[in-house]
Write a structure and sequence with these properties.
Blueprint lengths: L2 E19 L2 E15 L2 E7 L12 H18 L5 H7 L7 H19 L3 H5 L5 E3 L1 E4 L5 H14 L3 E5 L6 H11 L4 E4 L9 H4 L10 E2 L7 H10 L4 E3 L6 H9 L5 E4 L1 H4 L2 H13 L4 E3 L6 H11 L31 E3 L12 H6 L6 E3 L1
Parallel strand pairs: 5-6, 6-7, 7-8, 8-9, 9-10, 10-11
Antiparallel strand pairs: 1-2, 1-13, 2-3, 4-12
Helix pairs in contact: 1-3, 2-3, 5-6, 9-11
The protein binds 2-succinylbenzoate and magnesium ion (MG).
Length: 367
């Protein structure tokens, strides 16, 4: 289709509780939503970048800037745009994967809505609902952590992920393991450790964790290889995996034996499907990561997580874990699962009136 206009909306979304990681505390998401107006219809994409460049080099203002200065014009100038050609049309810009992903997702939503296909069908989903885990931030005390985790267990979450960092690891993990018994448990360090910590991280083996996610900085594949050899617990990469080729390389070298897939981090859902596929070929399971998405991004994540090789519960939590009110109909956990939307496109409707009401500034329209 022809892209007639690209709207950039900014919405302030307070989180129901502060989310603390090794890279800082988030109180709210500063959401950048992209709406493409196409000759065949409209579609939405959520940019998953954080406010600050602390998880990856991308951040919301930078994403908006690169779309306004470079990426938007490239799509608007093309006589014909499909989700499958967005990647090539935008490849003249190096990096900026989260910004590119938001645009590609909006085009994909418009295209699948127009043809009456759901994202699940488009991705080749094999299930109608997905198993859900929850990512739990660093708490002020172990007691507060146990309260929070206990609440999630009561809500039915099927896997707990704890954020860890030096000084907040063995003690909280031990306490949560005692609280939740056999419930699957994993940890995410968001690059907070160095190779000198490998001896210390080995102590995590006694807790029977599903995996340890991204202990070292994203470029440091070698330390992950050394850790994987030293520890029983499976090593899982998040930040390091920026596309399918990197995934193949990291798996081949023994740095990761399970992969966190985030569409924004790899440049879009089409590349996320490729990551899924290469991992499946190599016998490596994947799971769907999250970036505290609103319902707009969550709908696509849940559809992705319904693919065959997504065999571990994802960071695909219910809307209420993040927001008092969502920008779409809420995703509600039933028996620890979320239903994969079945309607055309992402299958959810963006609540225009909330996007307007909660906007942190006037929309920007590129033509
Ligand atoms: O490392 O997986 C991560 C949130 C923001 C940035 C990075 C990460 C996370 C999460 C939350 O762990 C996952 C979610 O519930 O969306
Ligand atoms: Mg992570």
């Amino acid at each position: 289709m022809k892209i007639l206009a690209i709207e950039l909306h900014r919405v302030a979304m307070p989180l129901v509780r502060p989310f603390q990681t090794s890279f800082g505390t988030q109180l709210a998401r500063d959401v950048l939503l992209v709406r493409v107006r196409g000759s065949d219809g409209d579609g939405w994409g959520e940019c998953v970048a954080m406010t600050d460049p602390v998880y990856s080099s991308e951040y919301v203002e930078g994403c908006e800037r690169v779309i306004r200065s470079y990426l938007g014009a490239a799509l608007l100038a093309a006589p014909e745009v499909t989700a499958e050609t967005v990647g090539d049309l935008l490849s003249f810009v190096v990096g900026h994967r989260m910004a590119k992903a938001a645009l590609e997702t909006a085009v994909l939503d418009a295209q699948t809505r127009a043809s009456g296909v759901s994202l699940g069908e488009y991705f080749g989903a094999v299930r109608t609902e997905v198993e859900c885990g929850v990512s739990v931030g660093i708490a002020r005390s172990v007691d507060e952590l146990l309260d929070e985790v206990g609440g999630y267990i009561d809500e039915g979450y099927r896997r707990i992920k704890l954020k860890i960092k030096p000084g907040w690891d063995l003690e909280p993990v031990r306490a949560v393991r005692e609280l939740i018994g056999e419930t699957p448990l994993q940890v995410d360090a968001n690059t907070a450790y160095t190779r000198a910590d490998i001896g210390h991280l080995r102590a995590l083996d006694e807790f029977g964790l599903l995996l340890i996610e991204q202990p070292f900085v994203e470029e440091d594949i070698l330390s992950h290889i050394v850790l994987a050899e030293a520890i029983e617990t499976r090593v899982c990469l998040d930040e390091s995996i920026t596309n399918a080729e990197v995934a193949v390389d990291a798996i081949g070298r023994g740095a990761t034996s399970v992969v966190n897939v985030k569409a924004g981090r790899v440049g879009g859902y089409l590349e996320a499907v490729r990551v899924h596929d290469v991992c499946a070929e190599l016998g490596v399971p994947v799971w769907c990561g999250g970036m505290l998405e609103t319902g707009v991004g969550r709908a696509a994540n849940v559809a992705l997580a319904a693919m065959e090789n997504f065999t571990l519960p994802g960071d695909t939590s219910g809307s209420s874990r993040y927001f008092a009110e969502d920008l779409t109909e809420p995703f509600v956990l039933r028996d620890g699962r979320l239903a994969v939307p079945t309607g055309a496109g992402s299958g959810v409707e963006v609540r225009d009136e909330l996007v307007r009401e909660w906007a942190s500034r006037e929309p920007i329209v590129l033509r």
